[in-house]
């Protein structure tokens, strides 16, 4: 064990939010104590995105829910999930002249530099902005009107804008990822956008055209606020790093047993430390060798080590989806498609069970209260 882990201070109180195909589960822990899982919220309703906004005097939980035939919506709670509210009109809706209809809210991301601003990534691939803490949203027309958008093709999970990366100090700078549109960045607050996929290989294309300007099947992107120019990206066909905010990308996935997977998360305190959950490519999308292992790199992707202490030892067939792994100051957490949730308070060196036998886990978020 690294010496810094031996000196780790006691953990503060933690809130964990687990969105599943049949409801939202909240779990709380006091200090280093066990997590107590509370009764389900939104039972039978899919919860595809969650954010815990800690910028205000009290945490606000935002949940992107799917009502079934009533459609998707965004709910919020300012009392740690005891009561929930929803805007009087649809909080996220496409303007009538777009001819589009909201299918799903894939991402809810509070701004790091603008109080009250929350970003929402949705399907069909579009970005929305809220200036009232996530109560109501408006379409970011600069991305919607981008000439590439008409050529974006849906991935297996749909044409989803699943990642929003606001700059920690510059509100004009942000980036998004669309599956299967690629990675895009803006330097003017979203008024205009440029594709930033140089170096990301798309091996499904003919030889000689495997590095297109856009159209890559990006699964997840993350960064650290102290070094926003350094990005890490989990692609359908690789793991990549950029040191110039997406200007160019370099593969860092070769040492992994498989560079296919969905989630990727950067450590909250160390910008060169990141986590992935490799899967067996497109064979059956199950964990490599059917072993439940998170892989961590402490040197920006140069080398990787498997982390499995405390995780199931027997054959495991359940995958981890793109937003079902998070790295926070409360710990590292992930949930599987067979409803198991695990956590680590020592950066992945050892794991413990948080919850068992939940519905299919879609998203996991944690915050210090």
Please summarize the sheet with the most strands: 4 strands, antiparallel
Give the helix tally.
3
- CATH architecture descriptor name: 7 Propeller
Mean pLDDT: 94
Number of domains: 1
Protein name: BNR/Asp-box repeat-containing protein
InterPro entries: WD40/YVTN_repeat-like_dom_sf, Xyloglucanase_GH74
Would you kindly provide a written description of the structure presented here, covering whatever features stand out?
The longest helix is centred in the N-terminal third of the chain and has 4 residues. The N terminus is likely disordered. 3% of the residues lie in helices and 39% in strands. The protein is built from three helices and 27 strands. The protein has one domain: YVTN repeat-like/Quinoprotein amine dehydrogenase (Methylamine Dehydrogenase, Chain H, 7 Propeller). The strands form seven sheets. Strands 3-2-1-27 form a four-stranded antiparallel β-sheet, with no helix packed on it. Strands 7-8-9-10 form a four-stranded antiparallel β-sheet. It has 369 residues and is mainly β. A hairpin with a 7-residue loop joins strand 19 and strand 20.
